[in-house]
Amino acid sequence: MDLVSVIIPIYGVEQYLDRCVRSVVNQSYAHLEIILVDDGSTDRCPAMCDAWANKDSRIQVIHKPNGGLSSARNTGLDMATGEFIAFVDSDDYVEPDYIATMIDAAQKNHADLVMCSVFHEDADGNAIEQTAPVRRKEYAPITDTLRTCSGIDCMRQRGEENGVDNVVAWNKLYRCQLWKDLRYPVGKLHEDEFVTYRIFGRTRTAVLLPERLYHYIERTGSIMHTKYTLQSLDIIEALIGKVRFLLDEGAMDLFPVFFSQLKDSIYKARQLDWSDAQVHKRLKELFRMFRTIPWSSIRYLPFKDQVNYMGTRLCPFLFWGRKTYGEKGAVKGDTQ
C-alpha cells in the first residue's frame, strides 16, 4: 500500500478542528501519514493537535510561528514522505472513503492527480446555492462520470461552474513528484491561483471523479467574504502568470478564457482608491508585469478584449480610470 501524506494547516479553528482530524483518522484507507501544522494558533488548537498525536501514532504535529497558509502548507510538504499527498483545510472535513476512492483511481489509471467532487456547505451544513452560469440549489459535480484527461485538459474543465473546485489545493490527491521544486508563495493572497496551474502543467494523466468526497465549509470569515484590500491585488499577479504559462504551453484556446478573468480582476480592483500611494505603486508593478504578455497574443482574443489588452498595456491608469466598479458611481479619487 502506498503511503499517503495528509497535510492539515491549522490556525484559529478550535471549533472545527476535531471534526476535521477525526474524519482523516477514520479513513477506510489506513496507511496514512497525517501532518498537523499548527501555524502559531493562539486558541486551543496547539493543545488539541498534541492530544490527537497522543491518540494516533500516524499523526505528526509541527508547531511553528504564524506565517500564513502558504507557509503552513510548505512546511507540511517539506515534512511529507508519502508517495501521494493530499491537503485538507482544518475547518473542512472528508468522507470516510476520501483517500481510498482517490488512490484506487490513481493506481488503476496510472494517474499523477485525482480530483473529486465537493459538497459546498455553510457553517450549518446547508448546501450553498450555485448562481452562475445556472441556478441550482447546490453546486454541480465536476463530472458526470469518471474521466481521465491531461492536466491542461483539467484546466479546460474550469469554466464558471467548477472553477473553485479546480483551482484549490484540497479535493485532490497528488503524486509527490508533482511538488518537486514547487511551493506556495509565502505572503500572497490567492495562493492556490499561483500554483495549481503549474501542477496541472506537470500532470500527464488526471482522473476526475463524480463522487462528492470533500466537504468545503464556506464561513463568513473566508476570503470570499472579506473586504477587498491592497493584498487582494495579488490575484492579478497570479493570473498574469497563468496566461503567460498557457501561451508558453501552446494552449491558445484557453488564453481568452483566463485573459477574461485577468481583465475582470483588474476591474474589481476599482474598489480601491487608485490615487492612494500604496495602491498606485502596487498597480504600477502589476501593469509592468502585464506588459510581459506578448503583443502577438492579441490575435487570440475577441475584439472587446483586444481593446482591453491594448488599453492596459499602453495607458492602464487612464484606460481603467474611466471605469467604475458596480453601478453606484465613481470610485473615490476618480471623476466619472
Folded structure, characterized:
This protein is 39% helix and 16% strand. Helix 1 links the parallel strand 1 (4-10) and strand 2 (32-39). The protein has 12 helices and 9 strands. With 336 residues, the chain is of the alpha/beta class. The longest helix is centred in the C-terminal third of the chain and has 15 residues, at 234-248. Mean pLDDT is 92; it is low at 328-336.
What descriptors fit this protein?
single chain, 336 residues, alpha/beta, nine-stranded mixed β-sheet, 12 helices, 39% helix, globular, disordered C terminus
Mean pLDDT: 92
Report Rg. 21 Å
Strand content: 15-25%
Element order: H for helix, E for strand:
EHEHEHEEHEEHHEHEHHHHH
Separation, N- and C-terminal Cα atoms: 64 Å
Proportion of helical residues = 25-40%
**Which stretches of 5+ consecutive residues score pLDDT under 50?**
328-336
Q: So how many helices?
A: 12
Tally of strands: 9
**What characterizes the major β-sheet?**
9 strands, mixed
Shape: globular
Structural class: alpha/beta
